[in-house]
Request: fold
Amino acid sequence: MNKKDIRALVVIWIVGTLMAFLTAALVYAAYPGGSLPEGSAPTAETATTSWINAPASPVADSVRVNFAWTIAVIFPFLYAPIMTLIYCIFRFSREKNPNADQFHEHVPLEVAWTILPALILVAMAVPAYQVLVLMEKRPTNPDVVLDITGHQFFWSYNFPKYDVSVTDDGTGRSPVLLPVDKDVLLKGTASQVNHAWFVPAFGVKFDVLPGRTTTSWVRPNSQGLFKGQCAELCGALHAYMWIHVKVVPEKEFYAWLKEKGATFPPDEAARISQLLGEEVEVTAAPAPGDTLALAAK
Amino acid sequence: MSIAPPEKQSKAAAVEVPLYVPVEDAPHAPTPSHKGIMRWLTTVDHKLIGVMYLWFAAFSAVAGGALAGGIRAQLTFPEGITISGTVYRVMSPELYNQFIGMHASFMIFFAIIPAFAGFGNYLVPIMIGARDMAFPKMNAFAFWILIPAAIMMMLSFLWGSTGAGWTGYPPLSSRAYSPLAGVDMWIFGVHLAGISSIMGALNFIVTISNMRAPGMKWFKMPLFCWASLVTSWLQLVATPVLAGVMTMLLTDRMMDTGFFNPAKGGDPLLYQHIFWFYSHPAVYIMILPGFGMVSQIMAAFAGKPLFGYKGMVYATAFIGIIGFLVWGHHMFTAGMEPWLRAYFSFMTMVIAVPTGVKIFSWLATLWGGSIRFTVAMMYALGFLGLFTIGGISGVFLANVPFDVQVHDTYFVVAHIHYVLFGGSIMTILGGLYFWFPKMSGRYLDEKLGKVIFWLIFTGMNITFMPMHWLGIAGMARRIYTYREEFHSLNQLISFGYLFMLAGGILLFGNLFYTLIAKKRTAPNDPWGTNDVQKTFEFMTTSPPPPHNFDRVPKVA
Reply:
């Protein structure tokens, strides 16, 4: 090797880093996120929405941004080693370099390539940790609580506060509705085997297991029909456990609940009646001695 | 203890002294007591056992590859083929689930792990200057128990096999949801394979610790021996844990125990923790020996010593130890406590550092070298590029928010195949071409070998690169069918499989042809690389005599 090779090596690593940042910028520009524009709500027929092409919650959007940053800091270690490899193949063939250098150690270099990647991993980890904290911050006072149950091979949903149960028939014609810009606490369990509730556009995936309740949360900030599927092998028809969630304005959400026979808690009933322009059924107060119902409140 | 070699010994003398004299002149040359097939059935010679391991791995890889072909066929025509109004499906959803579970089980337990056991068995005793492994009979037993293991697993297809994936999560794998005996047979197959692993590991550890030639201190050992040693420690410590969790699953199924049954106070999540406690070290078991082989091959064909030998040893050991502490990164969506997710993410990033050290050291080995592009070297170079890609997708998976999006999607399938195919399999093929002349005395065809390499390399990338995008777009894994918009990429992926199939067929053809039709022409140092390498296997004949060397070699 000579000075030209060392220069080439430095150039490769600089170019590799620049290519990584360029890739990140391209990804960031190609997938700008943000709310879906009015009227472009996905229907059952259009392309799959995901956290990258149509993030529909702050968590999904944070993942999108974090993904671009991760590409920027990690891809230098993809591009530069491969370019170095290709350089070696062309420059250090036996024909071009008949006398091999015999060096086989260089302690300062070895220390550098141990410490520097570690520091760069920290640069990836810190923002990732911040997104993780956001993911873990389940709303303490959720606007909506949705109980999700995985069965072989369909999903059923229950709104405990409104006493409404729906089942997704997998066709997209019976989605579960959620109100836009409201905190939704998701509580999941399974009736038989493990499943996983996965809606890419929400940035939500969590396993549901029998005998346990696992939780997640979402604040959908875009309206539309969002598709997902079961993400834990659960048997023969695992591939058919489709998830359809339709995010709608609050009024439409309560109208749908009412249509499904909901009863509304007394403290909300007045507001919702005014919103819908008609009277709604109020949840009956539990009988004075009904300790179970009282405990459920 | 033994006579240490004189300090100042000229290099020429260390290499020129022949270590093998003709059988007629050697005073105590043993003659094999059996001929033909009985010789193979009764041998305790580590070289013959190694060769049997390699044949076993080769045929298991064919079986695993055929299962992969079935998977790709289904995913090319997910809703079947419609001919004049009738829909002909490729296979039923139940059979598809069995195919994916068995593809993985066969490749992991019967192809990759035995292939490395085969290379280790053949090479490690010779490389350390020993005449055989410490426990030759246990060595034979460890190989032969793989036969009933594979038969058990294959026969499980008759009883519904495992429809719960190679990971076998209950409750899906419990008696209630997998009522047929296939899962029990699969468990027995895993148990027997595990016994093979544990026995082999014991043998390697004792052999390497106690039977090195005089002068071969720890830091003079070839890197492949270090890799085998660390791998053996992983196998010894982790495989019994697999045996434990498999036994618990078996008793849940057969004796109505309640380890993983919530109705009896058990927990399905417990299975996942114990299973992955083994299965994460398992992935290092499936790559570390390959790292060792690539180190030997690269130094040989770059014409210069391996860069940073000590750093490589420490990195290998560090990966082995930390490999026990990261299993939760397979379970980021399973419902673990938040702080636990952060911990496993952190440790997974920690383990990326020594892996990076190894990649840089290989690049530094090539840098300034005098590279000969033999087929073995092409596999080593291909490995370096492809494993880098697989490693980078692994770093992305350590990022929990990203992992939550792509867990159980095709992104993970892309990652595992880049590290297992682009990683492990490429090292195995490189090792095959490199040591085949030593083992058989014949060279595999280099020209055809280059064609095969390019077929496999190209096919592999066509198949597995698009899967990164499919996973990000939201295509889950282990699914029988998928949303319409994923169809064209799936067809492209299946097209790539055909390249790998062609390469595999040509490779097998050349293997049989070479062994049957070609003469033994390989000298002691078939590639002329031992002036740099200085490893003992290239100081004895091709193939070596039963006792490896007449005189225990002197360490340079």
Q: What stands out?
A: Strands of chain B lie at 81-83, 86-88.
